[in-house]
Amino acid sequence: LRGGEHVNLLASQLVDTPDGIIFRKGQQKNDQGGIDGNQFDLNIPFPPDPTGIAGPNHDIKKYLSLRPQKGKCLYLYLSVSRSVNAIAQGKWYADKQLSDRTIRSMFKSIYVECEIDIKGRNICNHSGRKTSIFELFDLGIPENTGMAITGHNSVSGYHAYAKPNNNHKREALSGIVNQLEGLPLLPSSSNTIKRKNSIASQSSLMSDNTFMQ
Predict the structure, then answer these.
(1) pLDDT at 75 over 90
(2) Which residues contact 155 (CB under 8 A, 6 or more apart)?
(3) Which residues form a coiled coil (predicted)?
(4) Over the stretch 122-156, which tens digit does the pLDDT of each residue have?
(5) Which of residues 193 and 66 earns the better pLDDT score?
(6) Rounded to an integer, what distance in angstroms lies between the CA atom of residue 58 and that of residue 22?
C-alpha cells in the first residue's frame, strides 16, 4: 500500500467470508481512472488461518469486533481508548481516526517489537510494499498475477521494483565466477533448483549418448 492509501483505509475494505478475510483495494490517483475513479476493483484474499492457529484472520476479526458498535468513523485505524473506565466497559477504541503520524510509525514499532535492527534505515509502509514486491519476483510469481496483487496497471511501473539489490548482484557475480572457474554458487533456493535441473539434464544426455554408442 502507498502512504496515503494506508492511512485512509476503511473498515469496510476488510470483508469476512467463509474462505477467509478479503481485502478490497481501491484505485489510487496514479492508477487508471484518475483520482475520482476510486473504486474497489481489486480483491486480495487472506488465506484461512491453519486449524487451531490464531493467524491474521483471527486478529482482524478480533480488532473489528472491538470497534464501537454504533461508531460513525469509517476509517480502519481508530484511536486507542486511554480511559480505564471505558476499557472496563468494553470500549477499547474511540470513535475517531488514529492520527496520521501514529499510523506512519506503526512499521517502526513492529520492527522494534520483533527485535529487527533498523539502525540507519528509513522504515515506512512503503518499505513493506517494496519488500513484498521483491518477494514476488524472487518467488517467480507470474507477472500478471503479481500486478493483480500490487494493483499496478503498467508493466513498467511493476518492473520499477525489480531493481537488483546487493544479494541479487552477489548471486549474479558468483554465477559468472562459477562458469569461469567451476566454483560453487552462493546458497539460493532458485539457483539451487536451476542448477540441479541443469545437472540432471546433462546427466540424462550423457546416459543417452552412452547407450547409443
Answers:
(1) yes
(2) 143, 147
(3) none
(4) 665 555 666 677 777 777 777 777 777 676 777 77
(5) 66
(6) 13
**Would you give the DSSP letter of residue 209?**
H
CA 82, 104, 106, 56 dihedral sign is positive
Record the cell numbers describing residue 134, joined without a space: 521483491
145 close to 135: Cβ distance less than 8 angstroms? no
> Exposed e or buried b for every residue in 5-19, given b needs 16+ CB within 10 A?
bbbbbeeebbeeeee
Query: 91 and 81 in contact (C-beta within 8 Å)?
Result: yes
- 95: three-class secondary structure by DSSP: strand
Reported in sequence order, the residue ranges of the chain that DSSP labels E, i.e. its strands, are 14-17, 20-26, 40-45, 78-80, 93-97
Average pLDDT (184-188) is 58
pLDDT at 205 > cutoff 70: no
Distance, CA of 151 to CA of 207 (rounded, Å): 48
How far is 9 from 68, CA to CA, in rounded Å? 17
Task: Return the H-helix or E-strand segment holding 12.
Answer: none
d(CA 33, CA 151): 13
Q: Which three cell numbers stand for residue 71?
A: 461508531
